[in-house]
C-alpha cells in the first residue's frame, strides 16, 4: 500500500494538507513495517512539520550474532507517511537493519545509519546513511573520519545541506576514540575541533545541528582516568556576538571551522549533555547531572554577549532522572522524559513558558483520544513548527510501538 502512496512525494503530500495544528489534537499508534527484520516492535525518532506529518524511526527486531556469542538487536530504518509504514533499504546482503533518526524540513531526505560488519571478528558496526526521495530512497552511505571505522549521523541542516554526527574506532564494543564531525551531501567528512582546555582528545559526541547550520550541540569529555566527566558543549561557526558573523567567502574563516565551547552546568552538577537546539541555535536543551540526579536543562544564548546561561526546565522533579529530548524551532516548546526509581519513563512537555506536564495528558486535554494502558512512554521528537510529536512506548497490548501526535497551542 505504501508503494502506491510513495509515488506521491513526501513534500507534495505535506503541502496538500497545509500547516499543522488541527483542533482537536490527534494521536496515532503507528503500524509495524514489513521489512527483513519484521517483528512487532517500533520506535519513532523524528517528525516533519505540517500535515500529514512524516515520521521516521525503526521497525522490527533481529538478533545479530557476533564472535563470542554476543547478541545485538536492531530493526529496519522506517518511514511512515499518511500513517503507512515502509522499511527503508539498508544492507541488502546482511539484512542487518538500521535506524532513521532525522528528516529534512521539506520531507525529501531521511538521515540515519545502517548496520554492517567490520573487522576480522565480524563485529557489528554502522555507517552514516541518507535515503533520498529523488533516488527512490536507495541508501547512500557516507564514510567515517580517517582512522575511524564507524559513523552515525543524528541531525541535518536544511539551510546548509550538512549532516552532523560522530565517528568512532570500534563497532559494538566500547570505543576508545569518538570524534564529532559533519558531512557534506557530496560525501566529504570534516572533523570538529576539540580545542577546549582539559578535554580528552577524540571524545566528542554530536547530537544536533541547527537548521541554519551555524550551531552544533553535543558533549565532550574532560579529565583522565576515573576522573572523567561528560560536559555539555556547543560548537559555533561564528562564535561571539552576531555582529562578528559573516558569510564573506573572502575571509579566512573556514566554511566548516566550528569553535567549541563548554556550556555552564546547573549548581552542584558535574556533567551533562546538550541534545537539541532551536532553528536559530539560541535555545539549547539537554540535561545536567551530579552522577545520581539528572535534571532537564535549557541554555539560552545572550544576543549581545554570545554566552549561555543554564536553567532547569520549570516543573522537572528535583530528584530522579529527567532530560530534554527536543525543542521546537522557535524555542518555545520543550519535550523530554522523566524516569522513576524503577526506570519507568514518562514523556512530558513544557510549552510556551509553562511548566512540565505529562505529554499524553496534554494531548488528551487538547481533544485527542488515547487508548488507556500506554506505559514507558518516550517523547523523542518535536517538529520545528512545534505542532507534531513522535516517540515510542509500550502499548496496551504490551508491544513497544512508535506513535505520533499533533497538537496546536493558542
Q: What can you see in these coordinates?
A:
The chain has helices spanning 2-5, 10-17, 359-365; strands spanning 26-29, 42-47, 55-65, 71-81, 84-87, 98-103, 109-118, 123-132, 139-142, 150-157, 162-168, 178-184, 189-191, 199-209, 215-224, 227-236, 259-262, 271-277, 283-289, 294-301, 308-312, 321-327, 333-339, 345-351, 357-358, 375-382, 388-394, 400-406. By secondary structure, the protein is mostly beta strands. The strands form 7 sheets. The protein has a 4-stranded antiparallel beta sheet with strand order 1-28-27-26, with helices on one face. A 4-stranded antiparallel beta sheet has the order 2-3-4-5. A 4-stranded antiparallel beta sheet has the order 6-7-8-9, with no helix packed on it. The two termini are 36 Å apart. Residues 1-19, 65-72 and 241-253 have low confidence and may be disordered.
**Helicity level:** under 10%
**Strand segment tally:** 28
Q: If you compute it from the alpha carbons, what radius of gyration comes out, rounded to the nearest whole angstrom?
A: 20 Å
Shape: globular
| SS class | mainly beta
- Could you give the distance between the termini? 36 Å
Strand content: over 45%
Enumerate the spans where pLDDT stays under 50 for 5 or more consecutive residues: 1-19, 65-72, 241-253
> Describe the biggest sheet?
4 strands, antiparallel
Strand order of the largest sheet: 1-28-27-26
- Put simply, the count of helices is 3
- Integer average pLDDT: 82
Amino acid at each position: 500500500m505504501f508503494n502506491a502512496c510513495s509515488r506521491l512525494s513526501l513534500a507534495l503530500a505535506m503541502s496538500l494538507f497545509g500547516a499543522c495544528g488541527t483542533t482537536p489534537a490527534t494521536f496515532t499508534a503507528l503500524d509495524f513495517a514489513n521489512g527483513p527484520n519484521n517483528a512487532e516492535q517500533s520506535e519513532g525518532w523524528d517528525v516533519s512539520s505540517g500535515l500529514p506529518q512524516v515520521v521516521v524511526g525503526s521497525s522490527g527486531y533481529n538478533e545479530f550474532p557476533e564472535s563470542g556469542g554476543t547478541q545485538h538487536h536492531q530493526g529496519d530504518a522506517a518511514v511512515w507517511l499518511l500513517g503507512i509504514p515502509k522499511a527503508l533499504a539498508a544492507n541488502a546482503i546482511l539484512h542487518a537493519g538500521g535506524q532513521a533518526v532525522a528528516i529534512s524540513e521539506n520531507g525529501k531526505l531521511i538521515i540515519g545509519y545502517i548496520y554492517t560488519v567490520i573487522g576480522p571478528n565480524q563485529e557489528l558496526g554502522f555507517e552514516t546513511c541518507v535515503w533520498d526521495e529523488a533516488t527512490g530512497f536507495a541508501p547512500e552511505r557516507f564514510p567515517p573520519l580517517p582512522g575511524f571505522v564507524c559513523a552515525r549521523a543524528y541531525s541535518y541542516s536544511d539551510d546548509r545541506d550538512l549532516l552532523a554526527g560522530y565517528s568512532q574506532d570500534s563497532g559494538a564494543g566500547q570505543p576508545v576514540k569518538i570524534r564529532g564531525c559533519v558531512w557534506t551531501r557530496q560525501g566529504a567528512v570534516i572533523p570538529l575541533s576539540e580545542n577546549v582546555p582539559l578535554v580528552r582528545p577524540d571524545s566528542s559526541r554530536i547530537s544536533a545541528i541547527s537548521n541554519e547550520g551555524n550551531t552544533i550541540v553535543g558533549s565532550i569529555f574532560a579529565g583522565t582516568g576515573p576522573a572523567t566527566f561528560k560536559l555539555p558543549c556547543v560548537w559555533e561557526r561564528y562564535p561571539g556576538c552576531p555582529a562578528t558573523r559573516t558569510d564573506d567567502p573572502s575571509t579566512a574563516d573556514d566554511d566548516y571551522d566550528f569553535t567549541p565551547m563548554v556550556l555552564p552546568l546547573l549548581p552542584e552538577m558535574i556533567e551533562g549533555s546538550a541534545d537539541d537546539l532551536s532553528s536559530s541555535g539560541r535555545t539549547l536543551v539537554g540535561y545536567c547531572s551530579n552522577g545520581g540526579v539528572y535534571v532537564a536543562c535549557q541554555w539560552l544564548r545572550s544576543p549581545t554577549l554570545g554566552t549561555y546561561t543554564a536553567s532547569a526546565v520549570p516543573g522537572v522533579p528535583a530528584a530522579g532522572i529527567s532530560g530534554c529530548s527536543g525543542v521546537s524551532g522557535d524555542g518555545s516548546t520543550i519535550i523530554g522524559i522523566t524516569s522513576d526509581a524503577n526506570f519507568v519513563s514518562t514523556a512530558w512537555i513544557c510549552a510556551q513558558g509553562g511548566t512540565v506536564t505529562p505529554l499524553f495528558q496534554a494531548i488528551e486535554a487538547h481533544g485527542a483520544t488515547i487508548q488507556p494502558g500506554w506505559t514507558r512512554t518516550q517523547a523523542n521528537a518535536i517538529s520545528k513548527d512545534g505542532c507534531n510529536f513522535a516517540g515510542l512506548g509500550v502499548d496496551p497490548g504490551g508491544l513497544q510501538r512508535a506513535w505520533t501526535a499533533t497538537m496546536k497551542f493558542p
